[in-house]
Amino acid sequence: MQLHTDMGKNQMPDTSLGSRISQAGIPLSDIALSRLEIFTELLHEWNQTHNLTGAKTHDAIRGNIVDSLYPMTFIDRPTSLLDVGTGAGFPGLVLAAVWDEVPTMLAEPLGKRAAFLKYAVMEMGLGHVAVERKQVEQLKHAPFGLITSRAVTDTGMLLNITSHLRASLTQYLFYKGSYVTEELAALEIQPNYDIVQWNKRHYVWIK
Predict the structure, then answer these.
(1) Using 50, 70 and 90 to split pLDDT, how confident is the model at 9?
(2) I want to staple 60 with a disulfide (CB 3.0 to 4.6 A). Which of 55, 100, 106, 199 is the partner?
(3) Is the dihedral of CA 149, 155, 158, 163 positive or negative?
(4) Is the pLDDT of residue 2 over 60?
(5) What domains appear along the chain, each with residue ranges and CATH number?
(6) Is 180:159 a contact under the CB 8 Å cutoff?
(7) What is the tens place of the pLDDT at every residue in 32-47?
(8) Strands 171-176 and 201-206
């Protein structure tokens, strides 16, 4: 009797966005997933001609989405959100697609990126999201509940340029690499923070 042990060996692993989000343990509604799938297609299309981000493939975009969403496994939904230097949408637009009741501002000074963000916000039906084509230093707004940023500048500078947009209860979430420990050590005043590491990302949560 011959035993067949190769069942399923030719099956490819499920790399869909929903599967990757589920494997990371990120809670997500079907509506939010649908929005993020729209975003994936929009960014892939725009990126062909406008070079908005280094994530050139669907798979790379999905990886950036999961990277943006992972903090949902350890932080609570904020009262409001400011994302500094949103670029092609990471992490601010991605988080806004999930936190659909959280007033969100995306600060992006570069014209072609701001134009994409405004178009994506419209196509994704995100009425709670505003895009400001400004440097964050130019923003005039009440303090935010959460301020996020990925790959913009060092931690000390981010704290300085957003000082007018925070209050005593404002929290920060910075998406960093392994060098973040040196950045934090260089701060004159040490904040209360946690560092959560996942894959190659260091998430700095300042409370």
Answers:
(1) low
(2) 55
(3) positive
(4) no
(5) 29-206 (3.40.50.150)
(6) no
(7) 999 999 999 999 999 9
(8) antiparallel
What pLDDT shows up at residue 194? 97
Residue 124 has pLDDT above 60, yes or no: yes
**Does residue 91 have a cis bond before it (omega within 30 degrees)?**
yes
180: pLDDT strictly greater than 60: yes
Report the pLDDT value the prediction gives residue 152, as an integer from 0 to 100.
87
Summarize the confidence of residues 72-96 as an average pLDDT: 97
